[in-house]
Specification:
It is a single chain. This protein has 225 residues and is mainly beta. 11% of the residues lie in helices and 38% in strands. The strands form 3 sheets. Strands 3, 4, 7, 8, 11, 12, 13 and 14 form an 8-stranded mixed β-sheet that branches. The radius of gyration is 17 Å and the shape is globular.
């Protein structure tokens, strides 16, 4: 389960990487984000109503209502920040978004923790000449959160699709890793049929990734080698 990632790429390089017209960049003056936690806002690339790529901000995690089992009082909603690849067409939480609202989630690294008291943090990035090459997680999005009142009910949210881990991630997290898409597959994930998109749900090649940082208490990634 991934519950922390970073997005350090500049706004200009993000537009170029994802082929977004500056007029369809709605991020404002986006700053580097060295630690993105569930419910935090972060950029996503989605298709606008006319089918054109656009960059917008979305909170991480689809929200669902939560009630105290003891008192019956409404609690802060749960944020579902990961969507299992084998549940996308089976779960009511994910199905409509997988069929109709897939997105790309820009990122430069993600963190997994191993062990306890204290846990050791591992930040995974792609290989390349840059310290943190820009890439895209496979994502889903939705506007509005059913059953949630107040400002949170109006949020646009995104979630990250996960799959089985590759050989680099497996020793740290033996069951899941985020789906990272090759740039040549962006078009298919955004515009393809559900069957075509499902073919992309596989572990990213381990040889194209590296452990960029490793240690205790590394809850941000500022991009150092």
């Amino acid at each position: 389960m991934c519950n922390l990632y970073a997005m350090l790429a500049s706004q200009d390089s993000t537009r170029r990487h994802f082929a977004v017209d500056p007029a369809r960049d709605y991020l404002g003056n986006a700053e580097p984000l060295p630690a993105i936690w569930p419910k935090y806002e972060a950029p996503i690339l989605r298709l606008g109503e006319d089918g054109t790529r656009e960059l917008v901000s979305a909170h991480w995690g689809f929200l669902t209502p939560k009630v105290s089992a003891k008192t019956g009082k409404t609690l802060k909603p749960d944020a579902w920040n990961n969507a299992r690849d084998d549940k996308l067409t089976k779960s009511g939480l994910w199905k409509d978004s997988f069929l109709n609202r897939r997105c790309l989630i820009p990122g430069t690294s993600f963190r997994e923790a191993k062990g306890r008291n204290p846990a050791e943090d591992f930040w995974f990035a792609l290989t390349g000449t840059d310290p943190r090459p820009l890439f895209a997680f496979a994502g889903l999005w939705r506007g509005g959160q059913p059953g949630i009142e107040g400002d949170e009910g109006d949020w646009t949210t995104h979630t990250m699709v996960t799959t089985s881990p590759n050989k680099l991630v497996e020793p740290v997290h033996p069951t899941r890793m985020p789906v990272i898409l090759d740039p040549e597959d962006y078009e298919t994930w955004l515009y393809g049929s559900p069957a075509e998109a499902a073919e992309l749900l596989r572990p990213f090649p381990a040889e194209k990734m590296r452990i960029a940082r490793q240690g205790v208490g590394l809850l941000t990634d500022k991009g150092e080698k």
